[in-house]
Amino acid sequence: MLNLHHFAKQQASSLTATTCTQPFMPNCDVYKVFNKIYLMTFSLNHHPILNLKTTPQESEMLRDTYPFIHTGYHMNKQHWISIYEHEDLSEDLLKDLINSSYQLVIFNLAKTKKQQLQILQSIKKSRQ
Fold first, then answer.
1. pTM (global) more than 0.90
2. Residue-wise pLDDT tens digits, 46-63
3. Listed residue (17, 6, 16, 85) closest to 47, CA to CA
4. Cα distance between residue 48 and residue 4, in whole Å
C-alpha cells in the first residue's frame, strides 16, 4: 500500500516555491506556495490523512467516485478534501490530485506572485 505522507512529501517537494511548515503541531506538515496552503499531512487515530484544496465541483465528484476521499477534515468542506490510505489509491491519482491542488492555488495568486513563480521555474529548469 502507498505510504501517503512519504509520497505527498516527495511530490510537494518537487513543486516550485513550495515550503513546508508545522504551524499547528509537530506531526502536521503544511505545504504552501507563496504562503498559500495547498496540502496538509497529518494523522488521526494513527491513520495518515492528506488534505488537498479542490474546486467545489471537483470535490463532490471525487467524493462520489472514491471511497477513500471525504470532505476536508477541519477545513472548508466545499474547497478541501481529505484522502485516507487505501489499497485502491494509486500513485498516479495522488500525484494528479496534489498537482491539481498546487495549480489551483497558483491560479488564484496575484499577478506579481505568478511572475515570480515563472522566474523561479525558469531558474529551476536551467539547472536541470
1. yes
2. 999 999 999 999 999 999
3. 85
4. 7
